[in-house]
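Would you mind writing out a protein's amino acid sequence and the numbers that encode its backbone to help me picture the idea?
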Amino acid sequence: MSAVQGQWANFLGAHQGTYPWLSDPVLTPKTAADLQAIRELVGKLPQQPNEQFVQLFNAYKKHTPAIVLANSVERTAKTLKALLDAGITADKLETACTMSRIRDIGAQLTASTAGYLGSFFTFNSVLAKLIREQADPAVQSTLPALVHTATSLVVQRFLRTAEMYPGWTRPVEADSKGAPAGAITTDRGYQKTLAQYWPFFAPLLVASLGTPDPALATDPATRLDRTADRVELRRDWGFLATAGVALHRIYAFDREHVWLDASNPAKERTMRGAIAELTSVPQTAAALGKYVLVRPLAGAAGVMGLDLHPAVNAAYEWASGTARDSKDERPAWPQPSGVSGLFSQLRTTAMRATALLSPMYLFNAARSLANAAPGHSNLINVANDTLLIAGWGYAMAESEHRVATDPELAAENALRSQRQQVALARRATPAQVAPPAESSAAGSPGAAGDVEASVQQH
């Protein structure tokens, strides 16, 4: 038995009768720091059973993924202690976590719809127009894919720099050592991202099997109309599938509330500021207005290489009367890393573009087979749809993985996260704020989220 296990056994024997919840496996300490945090937590409680604390503990466990609970005993104990210090009840924590999830559902629906407009919608719109204009087959097979790739990259950058991806929660999975990590950087999370486009099967099957087959048309004009109509049907019904993709991204992953962490004083301030905002109706309304009206402007500026978020945060603080504190310096934006950094970014962009372009070229190539074998056109179309969904899933998973692991983008995302953490901490009222302490670059609302983005995430 280790020294920590021995001390824990003695501590548990002395206090379990008063605090039976200490026997919960998520509080079994592995290190001396874990044990010390639990001791400090118990020191905040009255010397009698406390039903209100049990409710708070259960609410925290309900909204924290098992993989985080299993690896974060010190964080759990410190966060519970901070919630007690702030007078947060189980009901208030429940409200904050529910609003955190609702905000990210809205953000994911917005991000997925914008992503669809810049990808499949653009591809099918351009292709249908070229078909009706009877453009050269070589143009039909190349131009829609090129336009789709360019607009996809621009929309992704817009969403990331606007910080419109989900940012209050982030998807987590176990890494190779069993510790929680951003989902896209793990094998299991990557596989879930690969599968995210399964909702497109239904509308694509309807378009392929529920409409007149162009290959069986008896005259060229009818064939052209049927082909274009089918492309436009795929384009328009794709909006419903996009909602399914958004819900997959929200519910297929375990999602961690990134603000629900008081493992150090800086994070504690962020947590208090987040709870204050998430449980305030006026602040929720202001945040919605900012998301709808202001962040798109920041995204448009971001596409051009400008960063408006410091000005946006300063204006928000001025309007809300937030007191300035010189000890809360916002992090400096990363400086360009020279020629090597530029080449690294260009290489990452080229790889992402290739991943986005490849499945669309394959789709167009396979589409021509239906005309070559009209007797098997339906079977070819279904196989082609399956290839497209799998290929697009790979393209997006690979693109997100490169955004999450590229050194330049990772540094930028970390600083976006830190900047939003500081902004949230500054919004906490003086009574809520713990003594100022060192800054932390841990994940926080407003980060690139799922791309994770955001992922943010985003």
In short: The CA atoms of residues 164 and 176 lie 30 Å apart. Residues 430-458 have pLDDT under 50 and may be disordered. Strands lie at 169-174, 180-182, 254-257.
